[in-house]
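Mods, move this if it's the wrong board.
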Amino acid sequence: QAQLYESGGGLVQAGGSLRLSCRFSGSGFGHTVMYWYRQFPQSERDLVATISPGSSTNYADSVKGRFTISRDNAKSTVYLQMNSLKPEDTAVYYCKAFNFELRREYWGQGTQVTVSS
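Not the wrong board. Structure tokens:
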């Protein structure tokens, strides 16, 4: 079993930066693919970025060049550095973990990011 604890959301002006953190509590972080999703009001969650245990990354086209996902395996934490933020990035951001050995996924509670124009 694992739990995810997110932090770092908040209010920022357009063009600003935020860094989200997601701490993984439990065993198996080294076998876990980590994801950041975001959810707009009355919409489904959209995948923003992915990072493998070996730190291979993928990004949604809408955030490429602006967002960077990274992980610190020693701290069991994944980060999402968000630069050049736009009002359309306003959403609730969720962290997800998928343990490919156990075939289980876990979600964080979500953190609100609001970008003002």
